[in-house]
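Following up on my earlier message about flavin-adenine dinucleotide. Here are the inputs again, as you asked, copied directly from the submission form:
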Amino acid sequence: MTIARRTEDEDMQVNNAERLSASGTREALIRRLRDCLPADCVIENSESQRPYECDALTIYRDLPLAVVLPQNVQQVEDVLRICHTLDVPVVARGAGTGLCAGAMPHPEGVLLALGKLDRILEIDPLARTARVEPGVSNLSISEAAARHGLYYAPDPSSQVACSIGGNVSENSGGVHCLKYGLTVHNILAMNILTVAGEALAIGSLGLDSPGYDLMALFTGSEGLLGIVTEVTVRLLPAPEIARVVMAGFDSIDAAGNAVGAVIAAGIIPAGLEMMDRLAVRAAEDFAHAGYPRDAAAILLCEMDGTREEVAEHVDRVVQLFRELGATSLTVSADEHQRALLWKGRKSAFPAVGRIAPDYYCMDGTIPRGQVAYVLNEIYRLSKQYGLPVANVFHAGDGNLHPLILFDASDPEQVRQAESFGADILDLSVRVGGCLTGEHGVGVEKLRKMPSQFSPHELIQFEDIKYAFDPALNLNPGKGIPILKRCQEYRALPDRHRHD
Amino acid sequence: MTERDVANNSDRSEDIIAALGEARTRHSALYITAGGSKREMVGRHCDAVELDVSAHRGIIDHQPGELVITARAGTPLTEVAAALGEHQQILPFEPPVFGGKATLGGTLACNLSGPARPWRGAIRDMVLGVQMINGRGERLNFGGRVMKNVAGYDVSRLQAGALGTLGVLTEISLKVLPRPQKTLTLRYALSAEQAVQTMNERAGEPKPLSGAFWVDGELYLRLSGAASAVDSTARQWGGEALDDDQAPWDQLREMTHPFFGGDTPLWRFSVQSSARPTAEFGAALIDWAGAQRWVRGEHPRAQLQRAALDAGGHVTLFRGGDRGGDVRPPLTPVERRLQQHLKKAFDPDAILNPGRLYSWL
Ligand SMILES: Cc1cc2nc3c(=O)[nH]c(=O)nc-3n(C[C@H](O)[C@H](O)[C@H](O)COP(=O)(O)OP(=O)(O)OC[C@H]3O[C@@H](n4cnc5c(N)ncnc54)[C@H](O)[C@@H]3O)c2cc1C
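Thanks, got it. Here's what our run produced:
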């Protein structure tokens, strides 16, 4: 139906003389990359490539033709131009903490690792913005802004390591996103390089821009539309005070009800997190945060703002939790205790990692009112599959993180874990939710996309992809399924097929 | 909701799909309209057959405990606000209702937000999901009714400010917020320059600021939130405290403030909040803690654009002036090409609101 449009596309006119045969590609590619990058910034030896073979979802692994580590934006541009000319796939990588195999290398492509672009270029305290390179870690922005009384609000639990480029590409959230929004709400402008290496500045230092909102489109686009080379983020004033209320409950239903009750009371906590028994015990053994080991679930509800407001809201939340049958209640008395109570939550993933050889983290988002129902269903599935599950998640946003415990050395358990995960995603969609709240689709949830989207919707995604990357060279095989329809009129190389 | 509202509720999406099909067969373009409140503003003049979608209206679902409301795009904002009001909730982005004519769909398409925008976000920030009909007449759902959703591209948010050029919006789900317990306005006599400095300094303090604008030598700061927080901040900040009915926020949001009167061209600067104010284009009205600035009059475009670029943003001819020419700043060739590709991805036959956003789009 749209054949003419594709073939007319200027980007599609790849110079055939430049196109090299598959066998010659690798040599030509490496030679050209070496022409523009220092010797130690091009890694072709598979042993040295190992650290880059996967992200934090380690069951998916692959090795690329080459890993490149550009030191500046010019080198990123050079790499993109070379790959564009040679029609070679490019996969961007930030810190590799992603949980959907989004940064897994492509076997016929280049892995573009952006970790060396890690400078904070400018902090403007009056305008409350920071301009940073993509490899800067999330936490270091807040650390640098702290001397101005400012911070960068989205705080993924991986914030010590994860990069802002990765955050943008996944639209990452964190425990404070309930009140302060996701990455998309906290960034103003970006520099992008297109797949052909052309510079594109999107957003502005104002609060909107004149054409289509490419900031919205690029945020969460998983490296499929362009490479982020600079980000201007908004900084917020650090709150006067923050206090966290920890409440234990003797049933999942009671804890689930309490989540809805806080919101219904007209309070928007800075964060409202839930952990179930298995997660609580693992975290407590690891962090000694003072969690009640006998509770079926705990809630961590943080209030921040002015002193008066926080005092008022803490009182109301404590009262509410008591009425709803909390079996234990702790209010942080000082910063030390607050940090400790959060330490358990923030280290919950690695803590759970200690009680099983491997865990598989899901990310469905559901209406808040369905939390108790869905958790109980997950426990039922856990029995059915014979695999334990720990839950630690952003309850205020309805964003679940069931951690399925399994042993990756047993292929049967891997299959069972994947199938269990898929059931959880179906369940999330069935109760009116979605496949992924913050971790992204990547390779992992690609096959599940048709359970959330109709064929027309998937084709619309595909058309957006073509608008930016007509040869499908940016992170191919991830994020959005490329349907068979395309293969009818374009001879797609195998790398773009998903079936 | 009044009885009349309920009686008016109806799903006309099949009619919209049929109208699009017809337009495609006839190779004719459509201009999407609902309340008609923004016809002469925001975008360019669009010369096409009208597609009136105002009958496609009604609230579909409001879950107060979830902080989510879903309504058909033709629903008047006043109806949405009334439904939320029953549960002490608000549309966080304070959109102009323009005499009750403004609809939810038009507001999202134009991405119009009121004074609270820098703190509570634009409608763009609150949209959780949309149902839309693209130029091929396909009914599509993106996002949803939950707080977070990163499956696929964020097509819902992309509709904000697209002026209906990517699809006819049919349903919109939004995040809403509890009504703040207390609101209070403080007034100060200051020059534009002092006001911009003060607005930005105040916005950098952890206080419940929810509005900051300056006009005619006076800075207005609005506080909203828990009563205790509002009162203690007001004591610390001083200034002349105004009663709610004396405070000009409604006039500002609805553009009924005298500054907006008359027919002379109205220019909107969207710039870095801290940018130094300029008197180059006459007296300005400075809103959004400095990030949105309005000026009036006939001015050379190049001069306006240079000033906007210097201030880290852009300028558009919001209302009046020549609406046959481009009302938005020129884009680079790469930007232009990508915007055109995106338009084609949704509306390959250029049926929807051609030229409304840019003459070449
Ligand atoms: C223990 C743990 C806790 C976590 N907690 C959270 C949490 O609370 N909230 C949350 O949202 N996530 C969480 N995550 C997931 C992960 O940290 C985030 O997705 C993070 O944003 C990934 O950043 P990264 O730099 O590691 O990106 P990577 O994993 O390197 O890459 C992620 C994706 O972004 C693309 N990409 C990276 N950089 C660029 C760029 N410059 N331009 C274009 N594309 C790029 C990659 O191609 C890939 O598709 C957690 C992960 C772990 C391991």
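One observation from looking it over: Chain A touches chain B through 96 residues (CB under 8 Å). Hope that helps, and feel free to reply on this thread.
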